[in-house]
Amino acid sequence: MMPLAAPLSSYPKYWAECYGIAPFLPTTRAEMDTLGWDSCDIIIVTGDAYVDHPSFGMAVIGRLLEKQGFRVGIIDQPNWQSADDFAELGKPNLFFGIAAGNMDSMINRYTADKRARSDDAYTPNDKAGHRPDRAVIVYTQRCKEAFPDSPIIVGSIEASLRRIAHYDYWDDEVRRSILVDSQADMLLYGNAERAITELANRLSMNEPIANITDIRGTAFVRNTLPDGWTLIDSTRVDRPGKVEQHTNPYQTDEERAAATGGKCQISNAPDANDGSQVVSLKFLPKHSKTDRSKTVIRLPSYKKVKSDPVLYAHASRVLHLETNPGNARALVQENDGKDVWLTPPPIPLSTDEMDEVFGLPYQRVPHPKYEGRPIPAYEMIRFSINIMRGCFGGCTFCSITEHEGRIIQNRSEQSILQEIEDIRDKTPGFTGTISDLGGPTANMYRLACKDPKIEAACRLPSCVYPGICENLNTDHDPLIKLYKKARKIKGVKRILIASGLRYDLAVESPEYVEELVTHHVGGYLKIAPEHTEQAPLSKMMKPGIGSYDRFKAMFEKFTKKAGKKQYLIPYFIAAHPGTEDSDMVNLALWLKKNNFQADQVQTFYPSPMATATTMYHTGRNPLKGLNYKSERINTVKSLEQRRLHKALLRYHDSGNWKVIKDLLLKMGKKSLIGDGPNCLIPASPPSKHSRQHPRGKPFLTKHTKAGYTPSKRKK
To answer: What is d(CA 17, CA 444) in angstroms, rounded to the nearest whole number?
Structure first.
């Protein structure tokens, strides 16, 4: 079973609760004076503009701490060239909380081609240049300059996904844990509500931060093994030749039990390395009395993973195997003489706790100091609602699992419907359309393992690859009921679904697809097959294109029944690890056959800690057990080839004609050049370019079938 956790509301309120709720968390001394504050207990520094909305991390954490009675100030998008802005609110009584923002600062600042972006959606007027590269490190340094003695806690997705030594795409090298590089006192990873609440309360009771080493979802430096702990040495992998005996961290409990003559309590267990979807439960090896709660796995050191791709891939595999909060063990990794400890992931929030977080007194608008200047990231989610967190898909190019976890955390129906009414009544500019009821994946609401024991014991990276696990509940009825109730709310004209859809799950419920297609699609529906070819799909852990075909047939059936003209918009990734030139050519042929022209295309972006990033950097496959003879993966690294793969997704663009022609000739596929129905490109360059769009403006994939004209986007 999942370990128990203290409820968010179980901690005593701090004495400062007498100040009540702030209209907005203060960002200046003048605002503090208006509230009657002489100081802040906690100051949050963020790379985003301050939007008091549950989709923005600084607001969620700030309002949660406020509810605990703490006075919380916000320093948003400070000038990092000096420490002046960081001293604006004075010295915090407890700590600084440092966040890069809702995005990793490097992904926010640079494209997949490593070009500087000309915009920043989290800044007023979409203006770039208001946050530094590696914002967590820079902000921490400036806080230390302003107040050297103040404890500093780093968090947000930037810190979360850089918690151990990690490959950095922009430096093209492995960097140390961001905890060491920033010299912060502690790092919080994942959704940090539990950790930040407990930490703030313990610090308020004068517990030294150096003594706080037992909060889940945290990282800190500790160079000694505490009494009563067991260390599993995972600093090596098997080499050709003589194999030395050592504990295998890849083993399931069943495998370890079998090796030691043990027995299992419940058994329908898989081979952990073959992609099987059946799950093992608790196995009891003979003579094994190891307490998982006091077991730590030592990963290869920063210096080792920096110089040895196999050990890097091995460390990545071990970390991803230790992500289930029901069975994860602590990890430790030496980073230039400092041992970075990771406690197990945080326990997921209950439905009541999720309701509490989303029910905090947000203003749901940007801070008034921006004087109405538009903040694109806010405008995007202004009328949308997050109904859940987490994702059990396990797509290797995505880091949601490493950050939010694979166990779905659901809000109650009542909480969601109340937020719709709040948007209707309180959000300026509401015209009756809810732009999204979703989350990381739109249709995982209330989906979970059928057995809590199995859920707590499972170590598989996905519940839906290579097929849907037999233990996964795929009942969409709660979501259907939610949609129906939502669209009946007075004043609501339309409820759209804009979050990515897991179509292999959707087809398990025709009733859901009919409800979705009939009432919740605004002409186009985005889904993400990501590719058509098995080689890259197997490295992505995505289903085959046949799943897309089944959903498409169902989508078109119910669209016709509803008397509408609607189209699926499939999204694909170019240059993903495991992709050959031939795979991209086949994908381009599929696009042409199905009458798709991609206006907006995506090149694989190696984000920190993602499994696919490990593949990109090492050329190895961490989805399987690793040694020095393990499978090698083709990786697309040169800028020229990455652009070529991207060009194939836009086969119709005359600007790509020559590079595609040269590739086809090189591959011996001259037959694909010409004017026949099976050709990819014409024999001669097109006379004019395809429709071009203003630089930096996103456009959806365009369906070329006649009969549908998309409405103009609002400016």
So the answer is: 37
Nearest partner of 399 among 179, 135, 103, judged by Cα: 103
Domain ranges of the chain: 8-204, 230-314, 383-505, 521-605+638-715
Q: State pLDDT tens for residues 557-611.
A: 999 999 999 999 899 999 999 999 999 999 999 999 999 988 778 999 999 999 9
Exposure letters 233-262 (e unless 16+ CB within 10 A, then b)? ebbebbeeeeeeeeeebbbbbbbbbbeeeb
Residues 6+ apart with CB under 8 A from 466: 275, 277, 541, 543
Residue 522: φ, ψ to 5°: -95, 50
Give the CATH fold of the 383-505 domain. Transcription Regulator spoIIAA (3.30.750)
SS (H, E, C) 383-412: CEEECEECCCCCCCCCCHHHHHCCCCEECC
Token couple for 641: 């080839």
CATH of domain 8-204: 3.40.50.2300
Single pTM value for the model:
0.90
pLDDT digit string, tens, across residues 665-679: 999 999 999 999 899
In 173-327, the DSSP E strands lie at 173-175, 186-188, 218-221, 230-233, 263-264, 283-284, 295-298
In angstroms, the CA 481 to CA 620 distance is 44
